[in-house]
Amino acid sequence: MDRHLAAQNLFFWLHFRPKRVSARLLVALAVFVVALTAISCGVKKQDTSTSESDPAPRAVRVSHAETQTITRTVDYVGTVEPVQQLQVTARLGATAVKIYASEGDEVGPGDPLLRMESPELDAQIDRLQAEVERARGDREFLCGRFETDRDLAEAGVGTRVQADTSRSQCVASEQGLAAAQAALREARQRQGYLVETAHIEGTVLEQLIESGEHVSPGRPLFTIGSHVRDVRVMVTETDVAAGIDVDQPVRLISTAGEISSQVTEVAPMVRGPGRTIEVRVAVPPQWARSLRVGMSVDVAFVLEASHEAVTVPIDAVLETPDGPAVYAVEEGRVRKIPVEVGMRTDRCVEITENLEPGQMVATGRLETLSEGDEIYAVEVPGGKP
Question: Is 154 exposed, middle or buried (0-12, 13-18, 19+ CB in 10 A)?
C-alpha cells in the first residue's frame, strides 16, 4: 500500500474517530505512521544510491591466447646476386661481325657468344704458313746434303770438315722449321679467339658489344651469371656477434612470397666506416628463376625460435611491481593472473606459465582495470583495434 494513501486513511479515521478511543492509542498510532514514513523514505534513498554506484559494464577489447611458433629476428634488406659471375673479355684486337647471345639468354659451356674478324691476323697466318713451307724446303735440302757429305766422308772421297758443316746447317734448318711451325700454331690459336664462347652455364646479364664495333684486347664483351644465386646482405658487426653464423635459419620475403633458407657464408673481414660484414644467404632453387639479379629481398635472420608457444598480443601484458600479469576474462569479469613471459616480438609475447591456449584476456588500457571489474568483451583478433 502506498504510504501516502495509508497516511490519508489514518488521518480520516482519526478525524472521525469514535469518542471512546483513548488518548494513549492515538499517540501510538501517530508514532507508527511517522516510523512507516521514515522507513519508506530510507528504503527509496538506499535503492537510489545503490543504482547510482553500480554502473553498467564497460566495453573492453579481448583476445584469445594462441599456440604458434614465435621467433626473434633481426631484419635487413639484401640483394640477389649470382653465386658465380664471369665477365667475358676480348683476347685480341678485332672487329665484331656477329653476336649470338643477348641479355637474358640462357647459355652453356662452349656456346658461341660473338664472332669477330681480323684481316691483319689472317694475313699473318698466311705469311707464317708460307714461312713454314720455306723452312721445310730448306730443311729437306740441307739435311739431304748433309747425308751426302757424310757418306762421301765415310768413303774417303769427301772431307770430314765438309760433313760437319753440312750437319750444322741441317740442324739449324730443322730448328728454323720448328720455330716457323710454332709461330703458325700460335697465330692459329689466336685466330680461335675470334669466336668467344661461354665458359659456365647461366644467364647473359650484360651485353657490352654491338656488331661492327672494333674491340681492343681486354675489352669487356659479356657478363654471365650462374643460375645458382644467393642474397648478399651487409650486416653490422654487432648483429653478427649476436649469433649470425653459417647454417643460421633465415626467412626470405619478396614479391614471390616467403620461404625458409639459411646462411651459407659469413665474410671474414669487416668493411667500411659502417663496420659491416657481408653475409650470403642461399636462394632455394624454386626461387632462382623468379628472383632476378639485383632485386631487393627482405631478410630475417632467426636468432631464436620457440615452437608450440602460448602467445598473447603484446598489449595484453601488464607490467607490475610484482612482475608481469594479464587480466583473464571469466564470466564477464576480469581476474588478474601473474604470468611468466618468454620470447617477445613486436606483436606478441610468449607466456610460459599460468595461461592456457584459448583463454580470453583483456588487451589494451590495462591500467584502467581492477580485479573483479565487470566488462563487456569486444573480441578483436590479435588484440588490435
Answer: exposed
Q: Determine, yes or no, domain membership for 136.
A: yes
Complete DSSP assignment for 98-160: EE---TT-EE-TT-EEEEEE-HHHHHHHHHHHHHHHHHHHHHHHHHHHHHHHHHHHHHTSS-H
pTM over 0.85: no
Could you report the per-residue pLDDT of 210-219, keeping only the tens digit for each?
999 999 999 9
Residue 195's beta-bridge partner residues? 115
Helix, strand, or coil (residue 210): coil
We report the CATH number of the domain holding residue 320 as 2.40.420.20
State the CATH number of the domain containing residue 282.
2.40.30.170
Nearest in space to 128 (alpha carbons), one of 176, 58, 77: 176
In this structure, the number of other CB atoms found within 10 A of the CB of residue 96 comes to 21
C-alpha cell of residue 271: 668493411
Helices and strands, counts by H and E, the chain: 6, 22
User: Measured between alpha carbons, how far is 99 from 213 in angstroms, rounded to an integer?
Assistant: 11
Q: Is the pLDDT of residue 4 over 70?
A: no
Please give the helix or strand (H or E) that residue 189 lies within, else none. helix 160-192
Q: Which DSSP symbol is given to 19?
A: T
Residue 134 sits at φ, ψ, to 5 deg, of -65, -45
Instruction: Name, in order, each residue with C-beta under 8 angstroms of 60's C-beta and a sequence gap of 6 or more.
Output: 329, 334, 362, 365, 369, 375, 376, 377, 378
pLDDT at residue 36, as a whole number: 53
DSSP states along 272-313: TTTTEEEEEEEPPHHHHTTS-TT-EEEEEEEEEEEEEEEEEE
Given a contact cutoff of 8 angstroms between Cβ atoms, the answer to whether 296 and 253 are in contact is: no
Residue 30 pLDDT > 60, yes or no? Answer: no
The reply to whether 101 and 194 lie within a common domain is yes
Looking at the fold, whether 298 and 322 belong to one and the same domain comes out as no
- The x, y and z cell numbers of residue 181, run together, are 711451325
CA separation for the pair 359, 348 (Å, rounded): 15
pLDDT in tens, 41-95: 544 444 444 445 556 788 999 999 999 888 888 999 999 999 999 999 999 999 9
Given a contact cutoff of 8 angstroms between Cβ atoms, the answer to whether 113 and 107 are in contact is yes
- Which residues span the domain enclosing 266? 73-83+226-304
